[in-house]
Amino acid sequence: MLLVVGVAVAVAVVWVLGPGAKWWLVHVDGVKVGGKDGLAGKDLADALDTVRGRAMALGTGLLAAVAIYYTASNATSARRSAHAAIEGVEAARRSAEATEEAQLRTFELTQAGQRQSEEVQRRTFELTQAGQRQSEVAQRRTHELTEQGQRTDRFTAAVAQLGDASPAIQLGGVYALAGVADDSPTREFRQNCIDVLCAYLRLPYDPYPGDRPADGQDLAEHAEALKGYRAARQVRHTVIRIIGDHLREGAAVSWQGHALDFTDVVFDGVDLHEAVFDGGTVSFRGVTFLDTTSFTGVRFERGTVDFSRARFGGDKADFGDASFKGGTVDFTGVAFERGEVTFSRSRFMGATVSFVEARFDCSVSYSAAHFEAGTVAFSQARFDGGTVAFSSTSFTGSTVDFGAASFADGCVTFSQARLKGGTVCLRGASFEGGRVILGDTLIEGGTLDLGSAQVMAGTLDFLDTQFNGGTADFRSIGFKGGTTNFNRAWFGDSEVDFTDAKFGDGTVEFALATGRRPRGLPDDLAAHLS
Fold first, then answer.
1. What is the pLDDT of residues 92-147, one digit of tens each?
2. C-alpha span between 247 and 449 (Å, rounded)
3. How distant, in Å, are the alpha carbons of 64, 437, 443 from that of 514?
4. Where would you tag: which of 111, 161, 162, 258 has the fewest CB atoms within 10 A of its CB?
5. Residue 75 phi/psi, 5° resolution?
6. Rounded to whole angstroms, how far apart are CA atoms 366 and 254?
7. How far apart are CA 49 and CA 56, in angstroms?
8. What single string gives the DSSP state of each residue in 352-399?
9. Cα 159–164–166 angle (5° rounding)?
């Protein structure tokens, strides 16, 4: 409609500006044109221009009104469009928010579902794992019970073989039991096997029947007895060999540190050379050692080894190069009855070793042994025969106690021994016979204590001894008999004290002795010393 009005106005204005101006002047303005009284010429032209001006102004105004109206219409339409656009944007926003909320809710539900699914999976996995573990435990337990049953069966069968009357079957039992011990998964079960082997050695057996039949004995009977003895001896020695092999370094399975109970066993020959007794308790209490006994190079470290009341009655007992380090080794009341016993080059370091009340009736050698720290006790020991040698032995920071020992016969020698710190105690010892040699001994610090000792017979010899530091205590010693020899002794920086010594019927000699005169000597004895 607005377009039609605009077109009509435009046509009218164009018409008035053209030929319609005159019509408008005549018919609208009522002006007479032409003739006698009408406008003509310039006046008519001016009037027409005026009409045209008014038409132009009217057209312009109408066009402006149309433009205004059109503009207003457009503005309204634009406002409606903008409002519609705003509403569309708002609707889109609300839709987006709704969509986002729906997506968020969907995501949350999805996450919750995933968590529930994961929880179900985790729980299922845990239940599966728990089931597997229970199954594995059950399988392991079944396996363990099976193995335990097999071990028990093997153990029982081996013990049965060991108890058989046939030595050949017994040998098989020994090896079988050692194999069960080696395969044992626990220390306790292995100990059970070792205990059985030791118990076998403790069983009594028929003594050696001799190389020849006894008077009136049937030859066949003697031959059978000798055969049986040798077969049983082979079994016993196999047990000892197997135990020794497991106690040495480099054993495939070590039995070191296990308890070994040989109490009251009669060993007719034993070889435990280079065995290591490291921790644990080992008992040789009351054992009788016959034939040849070898502890050469054995290491006694920590733990307790008990030789108390043992008897050494064989040809030789060898502890040469043995090491006594820490722990306790007990030879209390041991009897060295015959043959040769040697501790040569042995090392006593920080251990407590007791030979208390031991009896030495044969030759025993501690030559070149080394005593360092620790305590070795020979108190109340009795030396009744043979030679007990501490030659070239060194005493460094240890205590070696011969207190109240009895030297009745034979020879005990400390020749060329070295005392460097520590104490060698002979306090209260009695010298009843034989010869005790401390000659050529070097005392460099430490204490040599013979206080209250009694020299009643035999010879106490300090020939060429050097008292060079430390203390030599002879206080209250009694020289009741025999000979005590300090000839060529050198009294250097040591504190040598004879205070309250009793010089009776014995002979005490200081011929050619040099150095400082010991304290407490009678005026008529060693007067040449300064």
1. 788 878 888 878 888 888 888 788 888 888 888 888 888 788 878 777 776 665 66
2. 40
3. 158, 19, 15
4. 111
5. -60, -40
6. 30
7. 10
8. EEE-TT-EE-SEEE-TT-EEESSEEE-TT-EE-SSEEE-TT-EEES-E
9. 135
| Contacting residues for 251 by C-beta, under 8 A, at least 6 apart | 245
Global confidence as pTM: 0.71
How many CB atoms are closer than 10 A to CB 296? 19
Cα 330 to Cα 356: distance, rounded to the nearest angstrom: 9
Cα separation of 233 and 269, whole Å? 9
**Measured torsion, CA atoms of residues 449, 453, 458, 462, in degrees rounded to the nearest 10:** 20
The whole-angstrom separation of Cα 173 and Cα 296 is 29
Q: Where are the domains of the chain?
A: 1-158, 163-261
CA distance linking residue 443 with residue 465, whole number of Å: 8
CB-based contact 319:346 (threshold 8 Å): yes
How many residues are recorded in the chain?
A: 530
> Which residue do the tokens 């010879």 mark?
459
Q: What would the pLDDT profile of 152-187 be if each residue is shown by its tens digit? A: 889 999 999 999 999 999 999 999 999 999 999 899
What is the 3-state composition of the chain as percent helix, strand, coil, each rounded to the nearest 5? 40, 25, 35
CA distances from 478 to 145, 251, 356, 434 (A): 73, 56, 23, 17
